[in-house]
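hi got a favour to ask and not much time before my train. below you get a single protein, a line of residues and a line of whole numbers that encode the local backbone shape. could you go over both lines and see whether the tokens make sense for that sequence. a few lines back from you is plenty, here it is:
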Amino acid sequence: MGQVLARPAGHGVVLLGYWPYTYARHPSAPDAVEVASRRPGGPATAVVDPARPHGADGIVDVEPGPDHPSWVIALVFTARSRAAGRGPTRHGLEWMLGLV
């Protein structure tokens, strides 16, 4: 069993959306990212502007990250071994893909 998690990184920050989440470019601010999260009371959105980055409770956390001049997608892969006679193992790998 494994998981793949994606998170935007750049402009000195990493965005960590609350599951389930989506990311999109904001239509009126080209460097801003709109984060949407489904909550029990309905969907909620927040806009993160890299000029003034801040999180939104229950939608997205903003943490220090790479100082790229643009956003990239950081993919975090985890995997669990199912080999007979071996306990589960987890491996993490981060792979940066540039957004065009």
Summary: The chain has one domain: 2-98. Residues 2-98 form one domain.
